[in-house]
Design brief:
Domain Carbohydrate esterase 2 N-terminal: 2-85
Domain SGNH hydrolase-type esterase: 94-245
GO molecular function: carboxylic ester hydrolase activity
Number of helices: 8
CATH class of the largest domain: Alpha Beta
Organism: Streptomyces regalis
Strand content: 25-35%
Order of helices and strands: EEEEEEEEEHHHEHEHHEHEH
Oligomer: single chain
Largest sheet: 5 strands, antiparallel
CATH superfamily of the largest domain: SGNH hydrolase
Structural class: alpha/beta
Strand order of the largest sheet: 4-3-6-1-8
Protein name: Acetyl xylan esterase
Length: 307
């Protein structure tokens, strides 16, 4: 999540209410502050040259159990908040789990405490954010760590899945529904869900056989693609990412959509060659995110996007 604005003058204040997440503040393209669980505050960046500036606030990590508030940018005395930047023509939505969030991607060790995970997660250098910037697109990263399409990591929280939360604006408010203001019309949606469904063996007591889990995954994935198609229309390209154990299942879902006449659903195999998985708990490192972004950007460049 990020907010962009324009101000004139020698300083800018960022009005925040968040005791759980971390943020970067960027002025004129340079990170000038990292705010660690800032709480209720107006954080000031002073000493700027007395001219126009671009300012960007980016949320670094995922905190689905907490509500964050952003109260806007304010100008220092003598300055002014200017009209908002022009929205980019391109929009991309990324849907996924902790690998899409950028979980622990700045860590120097695979062994991390929960606090270290929070401090070393930076969604702004995840493969999705990097891909969007390469393509000069506005973007959403709708990632939720630990959740899968039908089964969560190690069978945890069996009463919910990623799909439980997708429609919500506030993840910690059951029944909440995000109201699209009409300005979010992504030409491209990238779905990367399946690692948590299949990365751990089914435990005794879970309602799955291996074949049953695979069948349920494919069925739910197909339904989710249809949900996206209904939401965004026939003009949106949906890229379904396959990797590891779930690659073949995603490929089957895409083939079924294509056979049914929906040529706007594309399959992309995430090639993990050259990745070091040096992030926390064997997640992508920042290096890996750059590699994946370059490969995904190249794939997207070959699609008939028409943008």
């Amino acid at each position: 999540m990020y907010f962009e604005g324009r101000v004139s003058g020698t300083g800018v204040g960022i009005v925040l209410g968040d005791s759980a997440a971390d943020y970067d503040v960027q002025v004129d393209g340079t990170t000038v502050a990292t705010l660690v669980t800032p709480g209720n505050t107006t954080h000031w960046i002073n000493g700027l040259q007395n001219r126009e500036h671009t300012v960007r606030l980016v949320k670094r990590n995922d905190t689905p159990g907490d509500t964050s508030t952003f109260g806007g940018f304010v100008a220092a005395p003598g300055g002014a908040v200017l009209s908002k930047p022009t929205a980019r023509n391109r929009q991309i939505e990324f849907i996924g789990d902790s690998l899409t969030v950028g979980y622990g991607n700045l860590s120097t060790s695979r062994d991390c405490t929960q606090d270290q995970v929070k401090r070393t997660t930076n969604t702004d250098v995840s493969y999705g954010a990097l891909t969007a910037r390469q393509l000069n697109a506005d973007y959403q990263i709708n990632g939720y760590s630990g959740l899968g399409m039908v089964r969560n990591y190690n069978g945890s929280s069996p009463d919910v899945t990623y799909r439980t939360y997708y429609d919500r604006a506030l993840q910690n408010v059951p029944g909440d529904v995000w109201q699209n203001p009409g300005t979010w019309r992504p030409q491209l949606v990238v779905v990367n869900l399946g690692t948590n469904d299949f990365s751990t063996a089914v435990n005794p007591g879970e309602p799955w056989t291996p074949d049953g889990l695979a069948a349920a995954y494919r069925s739910a994935y197909g339904d989710f693609v249809q949900k996206l198609r209904t939401r965004y229309g026939a003009g949106t390209t949906i890229v379904a990412v396959g990797a590891g154990q779930y690659a073949g299942h995603v490929q089957q879902v895409v083939k079924a959509r294509n056979d049914a006449g929906d040529s706007g659903v594309r399959y992309w195999l995430l090639d993990d060659s050259g990745l070091d998985f040096l992030g926390c708990a064997w997640h992508y490192s920042a290096h890996d995110d750059r590699v994946i972004s370059d490969r995904l950007t190249s794939f997207i460049a070959g699609l008939p996007m028409g943008w």
